[in-house]
Input
Amino acid sequence: MKLQELITPALIQLQVSLYSREAAIQAGADLLHAAGRTTAGYAEAIEANLARFGPYFVIAPGVAMPHAASPSEVLTAGVSVITLAAPVHFGHERNDPVRLVLTLAAPDQASHLAALGQLAQRLSRSGVVDQVIAATTKETVLNILTEEN
Output
């Protein structure tokens, strides 16, 4: 799947005031659930991963990509995007605090790896993370994250 299929305007919220990593995880999972991409239990699956493995999904400075290998909770692949009004600490020793939360839902390992690879490639480009965090419209976020070149 292309990022254009994984991220839609309904899966984006900008400058959200959240005050804990649990609230950020829940908010990202709620967007996926509201869009019909996951069941209501997906946030719990992510929280279980966090409890078991720690905040490994804080993948870069300021960026968290919560996810869980939970095929029973994922109906179809998707990525929710939340920019935070104020940074939230996830407990990662190098990449905290977080300002961008990309919650990934994938029904199987192949789609998980494909989505993760596309997002990582896009986010590794110079300035992209800062541009997404500074964006004031959902359309701007979509353009930044799904731009082909």
